[in-house]
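User: structure tokens for this one?
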Amino acid sequence: MTRTVLLVDDEKQPLKYYVWALEREGFKVMQCYDPDTAFDFVDKQTPDIVAVILDIMMLPGERYRDKDTQEGLTTGTFLYDDLRSRYPDVPVIVITNVSNRETLQYFKGDPKLQVVQKLDVPPFELAQLVSRMVESDTE
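Assistant:
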């Protein structure tokens, strides 16, 4: 069984280290740099996604251009809602540099979600966190 992780973040350079670490943990990684690409992948591939890693700050793209994303500062909250409605039981890790308490409060109450600060989680720790969340999800 392919274990696909959907990684949505517009920062291309740091992502390569996350992808490398996740692949070493045995995951197939689908990298998307914006919400439009993420939904193109989800709509066309109907993949077996075992986890989602999601940034909050990114350009809204066409999908959220009419939403109040606060100029991209909260795009990830809209993407989270749409992905969660499609994959209600899949673990989600929000990895972000956002420190705005109000934005981070948005994610409270989801037992299958963790919010981590990018600066605090090196790639191998993130990969291990994904593994733990996926394993506990299958128990």
